[in-house]
Design goal:
Blueprint: E1 16-18, E2 21-23, E3 30-31, H1 33-36, E4 58-60, E5 64-65, E6 72-73, E7 78-79, E8 83-84, E9 91-95, E10 99-103, E11 108-110
Antiparallel strand pairs: 1-2, 2-3, 4-7, 4-11, 5-6, 8-9, 9-10
Length: 111
Amino acid sequence: MSELPVCPQCQSPHVYEDGGLLICPECGQEWSPSARSGETAAEFRDANGNILSDGDTVTVIKDLKIKGTSQVVKVGTKVKNIRLVGGDHDIDCKIDGVGAMKLKSEFVRKS
């Protein structure tokens, strides 16, 4: 079993793991294990340079053809509750009338 670090906020040694997070029961601080190993999380930015985070609402800034169909995601389409992922496409989301999609952050702006 690996040794867990102390809490970065209150320095408590009583840290425990819950799912994918480390939690301090004394101050309530939660952080990811990658933060303890010195790794930095990828930073995703929209077309205007604003930092995106999970759960944000974004607006499509360009007509996007959907591969394999004749459908198009129109300019101005609002996409709620995005999820950021790594890889070729940065955003996993559901678009009303289209379904589950993967988008690149360069084609959206934060609402």
